[in-house]
Amino acid sequence: MANQHSILVVEDNANERQALSRMLRIEGYEVLTARNPDEALETINRPVDLVVSDLCLGTKSGVDLLNLWMARKPGTPFIMVTAYGDVQSAVNAMKLGARDYLTKPVDPRQLLKLAESYCNEEKQPPPTPRLRSASRRFKPSGQLVGTSPALDRVREQIARAAKSDSTVTIQGESGTGKELVAEGIHAQGARHDQPFVVVNMAAIPESLVESELFGHVRGSFTGATVDRQGRFAQAHGGTLFIDEIGDFPLSSQAKLLRALETRMITPVGGNEPRSVEVRVVAATSRDLTALMHEGRFREDLYYRLQVITIMLPPLRSHREDIVPIAEHILTDLTERIRRPRPALSPELRTFLESYEWPGNVRQLRNCLECMLVLQEGDELSLQHLPPSFSTTPGLGTLPDDATLIDMEKSAILQTLEKFSGNRSRTAETLGISVRTLQRRLKEWSIDEPHS
């Protein structure tokens, strides 16, 4: 059903342009497309509720389009799409008026959430990037699936944590569902009808961290043309979820600690502190204790965050949940693309249960989505697995006494080998970020995986 909103997609790669357009049309949006800024400007007089533009557009860039578009229609929400290595350029584009940015490969759920938020903001002041919901009503994006004792313990911890306003730290490997747990804490608590705001520290340049969290006043730095709320102010009365807290720059940790302890923030360039009433939930895939001992994480902030700690188990530690999770993911994916849900063959079920899944649920979802897109039949089997997956259960060459670290290392190196050292494709396949992949290789003193 059409939702009466129009989105302009600007992308010079035909396949990516078609994929983004198809995704948005399935959700009921009217979609206009353009290959470059010149074609995009031909639609300037048509009603456009949102522009989604690639940063690199051949001889011109998305920033060129942004400048031209904002000069004529400054109120149009603008999302920049960029490769991981160009995040700084996308952040710079935000200073020029872009509302947000997404990194490739684009997460469909993230794009659709942003599209819903920005296309339904007519009577609301312009939000800053990645405010979770346009309205004050919170809608969790999913649920923990599985009946294992490990997940039952997590559900019990979520329920108990939701009854208080204490700070919570969620620890677990990449892809284990830390944001889902944070959403659960918020949804089951007294703040469930208040804002749930997300900020990912791994995606923010160090120079912009304080502005992102605490806001800034006009003229406080080059490009600060208007006053801007930070995430703490956006989350007033609700929950602020700080993802990848282990990547929080040491130089700004004292200000975060002060905000947590005093519930007062001062925008960058401002003199007047303001009170905020926020429940903070943090998450990390890193070892905060090790970071503290190495002097990269303040001890006082560490203990301030460790009021309630929830440890998420890796997927390989509760294998009985893998097939039910896969079934749930398939149902969600097929509902989104409106096609019958294929069955999982017995052999594929066995493989899914035996694979190590270093990228956890995120990697499992990526695997199933790839299979679903490429396979038209009514059953998914081993032959439909992406090329990066071996049909030999487990990791094959590892000794019987291999540790989880050995398994993770083997999976990463094998995937790097399959993609000839391409780290972006390796990270995407494993369901982890490029930064996480680079950190692992550095920990193992591997600069050239194939040398």
Reconstruct the topology from this structure.
Elements: E1 6-10, H1 14-26, E2 30-34, H2 37-41, E3 50-54, E4 56-57, E5 60-61, H3 62-72, E6 78-82, H4 87-95, E7 100-103, H5 108-119, H6 149-162, E8 168-171, H7 178-188, E9 196-200, H8 209-214, H9 231-234, E10 239-243, H10 253-262, E11 264-265, E12 274-275, E13 279-284, H11 288-293, H12 299-305, E14 308-311, H13 322-337, E15 343-344, H14 346-354, H15 360-374, E16 379-380, H16 404-418, H17 423-430, H18 434-443
Helix pairs in contact: 6-7, 13-15, 16-17, 17-18
Describe what this molecule looks like in 3D.
The protein has 18 helices and 16 strands. A five-stranded parallel β-sheet has the order 2-1-3-6-7, sandwiched between helices. It has a five-stranded parallel β-sheet with strand order 9-10-13-8-14. A two-stranded antiparallel sheet has the order 4-5. It is α/β, with parallel strands linked by helices and 451 residues long. Strand 4 (56-57) and strand 5 form a beta hairpin. Residues 123-138 and 391-398 have low confidence and may be disordered. The radius of gyration is 22 Å and the shape is globular.
